[in-house]
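=== RUN LOG ===
request id: a7f3
mode: sequence -> structure
chains: 1
length: 453
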Amino acid sequence: MRATSIGHAGILVQTRQATIVCDPWFLPAFLGSWFVFPRNDQLSPELMAAIESPDYLYISHQHADHLDEAWLTNHIDKTTKVLLPNFATRELERRLSKLGFTNFVRTENGKETELGDGLTIAIHVESAIADGPGGDSAIVISDGESRLVNQNDCRPGDLGALTVHGPVDMHWLQYSGAIWYPMVYDEPRESLIQQARLKVESQFARSMKYVSLVDARVVVPSAGPPCFLDEDLFSLNMITGDELSIFPDQTEFIKRLQAVGNDRATLNIPGTTIEISPSSIVVTHPMSDELAQRPFAHKEEYLREYQADWSEWLRDYKAKWPQQKTNLLTQLQDWWQPLLAMAPALRTAIGGGCLLKTDDAEMYIDFTNGLVVPFADQKYRYRFEISRPLLEKTVADKAVDWSNSLFLSCRFTAWRDGAYNEFLYNFFKSLSVERMRRAEQEAVRRTAPDSAT
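=== RESULT ===
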């Protein structure tokens, strides 16, 4: 079995039976905020040809750094077989169908699916409230000789689920940050720095726990971090370690593993191949070891060069953000109030009002009464400040998941009175009838188990 990094969570898996491309991401995501790190826009023509002509395509979940719709539209044949996680809804299937894909292989959660000639896959689905109703998934690929676990961002509730299919040879997993917390919060910088460091430690601890449990022959740090090339966000890159950032790179994670006696992790960049057999593990970079280390050893220089190469694209992209002003209040009332009416348990769990503030408009989400009204100095527990063009775009797009469409961009500021409230963010991830129905069911289950049906 050969697995090649194609950047971030992207993997090209080649076995004697077939090839599987996982989560190919090439174009900047989340309102032009996230870029692949190290960069994957300079892969060889031979590798790109293999990526663009797989036997199977696997998309783990709907976040834009995994589901790159613009790239898939133009680069993958639409007759390619798509391995579908068994999510509670068919949103992912509908989105891929809209792109033109027609050949879907439906799977059962956690159960092996035979693809032919001894090649099997098992997709494990997670739909915790933290993932939003869209869910997340991990895939286990076995070719009869070797076994690969591609965990990407997925956080299995059953920590042993990924090992039930047999011993694991390769384990690809996330270890770095993938959220906007705490950087966007309106708090003293010293407090945010402390929170960021605690977040990094918790990320490392969780990932090291997975590594220990899966106990693979080789560990491949992946699925992050992104880098931020817009100058407005450049400070989110972790270069010296003193930044307000939750995005350490894989060299730091490898050091943590080595400190506890685990030397199985391998540095990888886009184009790095890992070939594994029962008797050998061979890692090959697409360039010299020195050049492969450069994105990490000389990170600021590397990022500035990368930034310069994409500056024109970024400028043109931001110029397309809407400048016209519409009646946001009316649109949100028409869109959200029917959804709020569906979710009394979710509203109660949120436990307070929310001020939605933009350049020249302020709206109040009255969760108690299920209304969106003009802000008139009502007491609020949460506040979001979003620039008018980005709020206009998100509303015009009728984005059903604001974490994917807005929050992960880190292009906003937030404030809260008290602790983090997962139900608030699940509201913003559930802005369709289908999603809100599931969000309300989850809120009922979580807050009043005896009343769940």
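=== NOTES ===
The mean pLDDT is 96.
The first strand starts at residue 2 and ends at 7.
=== END ===
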